[in-house]
Design a protein that fits this description.
Elements lengths: L1 H4 L5 H11 L5 H10 L2 H6 L42
Helix pairs in contact: 2-3
Bound molecules: zinc ion (ZN).
The site of zinc ion has 5 residues, from helix 4.
């Protein structure tokens, strides 16, 4: 189908392409429904419908040349008390 042939472009661009080449009643609804169920797009493309989390500012470093670490991975299990991650 045109969606896969055109490298999984979104519903709007797939519709624009198909509209120039075929006539089909309710084409926009069909294209929108088809692209919403595309497995590759659902896995690879971000979901912009979900609200993003707020940005949390980091604290300034206590001294010059001190090291700061930022965890980009969240929801990891806690280490047992008194142990340090290796
Ligand atoms: Zn797709």
């Amino acid at each position: 189908m045109a969606h896969e042939d055109r490298a999984h472009v979104g519903a709007k661009r797939t519709y624009e392409y198909l509209r120039q080449h075929v006539f089909m009643p309710r084409l926009w609804k069909k294209v929108k429904a088809y692209t919403a169920t595309c497995e590759k797009c659902r896995k690879a493309k971000p979901d912009y419908d979900q609200p993003l989390d707020l940005i949390v500012p980091t604290r300034p470093p206590p001294t010059q040349l001190s090291t700061q670490c930022i965890d980009f991975i969240t929801s990891l299990p806690e280490c047992p008390e008194g142990t340090t991650p290796s």
